[in-house]
Amino acid sequence: MIKELLNKLFGNKEVSTAMTETEVTNHKENNAMTSYTIFGRGNMATAIAGILTKGGATVEHIGSADSATATVNGDVIILAVPYPAIESIIANHKDAFAGKTVIDITNPLNFETFDSLVVPVGSSATAEIQAQLPQSRVLKAFNTNFASTLSTGRVGDLSTTVLVAGDDADAKNALITDVNAGGVDALDAGSLKRAHELEAVGFLQLTLAGSEKISWTGGFGLVK
Ligand SMILES: NC(=O)c1ccc[n+]([C@@H]2O[C@H](COP(=O)([O-])OP(=O)(O)OC[C@H]3O[C@@H](n4cnc5c(N)ncnc54)[C@H](OP(=O)(O)O)[C@@H]3O)[C@@H](O)[C@H]2O)c1
Q1: 6 C-beta neighbours (distance < 10 Å), count
Q2: Which stretches make up the Pyrroline-5-carboxylate reductase catalytic N-terminal domain (predicted)?
Q3: What spacing in Å lies between the alpha carbon of 111 and ligand 1's midpoint?
Q4: At the N or C end, where does the chain have fewer CB atoms within 10 A?
Q5: 160-201 pLDDT tens trace
Q6: pLDDT range class, residue 22, cuts 50, 70, 90
């Protein structure tokens, strides 16, 4: 019964792991390369772009200076900016995002108190963004990984795993495939509702690092 329910939620897929070199070569040769537009040029934007380009995707960045006027060329958009910046990005680019996958990586903390999230209780940044972009497929991803663990592919002795949540299975699988092709594990963490839990994990991890109980190269790892 529980297995049936889980299969319904996730499909029968096993955990996706990073591809072998041959699989990466096949991925690059056989698939039309995904093109990504990443808003932001900071730590996360750089680390994520490194993974995606290693896997054969093309990546363009839009920084804050050109954010209002830039043309969005990518098939997939990644919002690698502070959560408060997303409101103006959506205001400027909502039409360009229609029909596309939009990936939210934010941890929407109240950085004044470091004691709560700024999204409504029970909701998530991702759910708020999906509500504003009903014609886009919005995913949560990367928010439980510190930037350095994405660059190195390691959290301590473990491989880094990117957790992905969202309601569109094809969009999730496409991202997981591109992350795997870049040498990093990725896992379907469930529906858009799970973004709430992913943000709780990201919140806790941030408070642990902010209070110097763990390092910014550490964080939560996943044992499969
Ligand atoms: N750092 C981590 O380890 C980590 C882990 C998980 C999740 N996250 C999340 O990832 C996001 C980015 O964090 P980060 O550490 O990469 O921050 P960061 O290094 O400070 O970079 C933020 C980037 O956002 C840009 N930006 C701000 N407003 C923008 C706009 N309207 N349009 C386009 N770009 C804009 C900034 O450009 P300017 O410099 O020109 O202002 C900067 O390039 C945050 O939401 C954070 O919660 C971070």
Answers
A1: 12
A2: 66-108
A3: 14
A4: N
A5: 999 999 999 999 999 999 999 999 999 999 999 999 999 999
A6: confident
Long-range contacts of 65-74 (CB under 8 A, 24+ apart): 67/39, 67/92, 68/92, 71/96, 72/37, 72/96, 72/97, 73/35, 73/37, 74/35, 74/36, 74/37, 74/38, 74/100
Domains of the chain: which residue ranges? 12-210
Residue nearest to atom 19 of ligand 1 (CA): 42
Ligand 1 pocket test, candidate residues 44, 103, 118, 140, most atoms within 8 A of CB: 44
Single pTM value for the model: 0.92
Q: Which of 37, 38, 39, 43 to mutate to test the pocket of ligand 1 (most atoms within 8 A of CB)?
A: 43
DSSP state of 193: G
Structure confidence at residue 27 as a pLDDT band (50, 70, 90): low
Q: Is the CB of 88 under 6 A from ligand 1?
A: yes
The two three-digit tokens of residue 82, written as one number: 């502070």
